[in-house]
Amino acid sequence: MLGYLFFVVVFLLLILFVLVGVAFLTLLERSVLGYVHIRKGPNSVGFVGILQPFSDAIKLFSSEQYFPLVSNYLVYYFSPVFGLFLSLLVWLLIPYLSGFISFELGLLFFLACTSLGVYTVMVAGWSSNSSYSLLGGLRALAQTISYEVSLAFILFSFVILICSYNLVYFYLFQFYIW
């Protein structure tokens, strides 16, 4: 029982740190783009814009909700939530030093989770009940599938080299190799 509680707490901490890390990477991206375009970046909230991600989150959660009237709204709102869940589920596979979790077929689990993300894009486009959104979703679906096939071939070349699907062996194989 204590092991399961520890697993849940560590997983929730992992999700929290990943989301905060993505927020600050977005801030870094916006700052770099501001310098590239020779204009001011997001530097008005807090010291050097360090509170900008929190300001963006407050603005996101307090903005007005848009309800498409003719859409399949339950599926329309839960497909991005399912996509976020799938992308956070992939973070379980990273071999941490504490031995958080180890899958023997971790690479296949990674490919399965990333390929399920295709369905969230397709369902989001279909459930809006708009032909433009459906066409955009199908275009994104075709593009994602084509990228996944090349990624799978690249990853399988490493599987042949390492002779395992476990990502811990990928980590150990790189220990003495730069």
Automatic annotation (TrEMBL):
GO terms for biological process: aerobic respiration. Its main location: membrane. One of its GO terms (cellular component) is mitochondrial inner membrane. It is found in: Membrane; Mitochondrion inner membrane. Its EC number is 7.1.1.2. It catalyses: a ubiquinone + NADH + 5 H(+)(in) = a ubiquinol + NAD(+) + 4 H(+)(out). It is a multi-pass membrane protein. Signal peptide: none annotated. Keywords: Membrane, Mitochondrion, NAD, Transmembrane, Transmembrane helix, Transport, Ubiquinone. GO terms for molecular function: NADH dehydrogenase (ubiquinone) activity; NADH dehydrogenase activity. The chain crosses the membrane at residues 6-28, 74-94, 106-128, 149-172. Pfam families: NADHdh. Belongs to the complex I subunit 1 family. This is NADH-ubiquinone oxidoreductase chain 1.
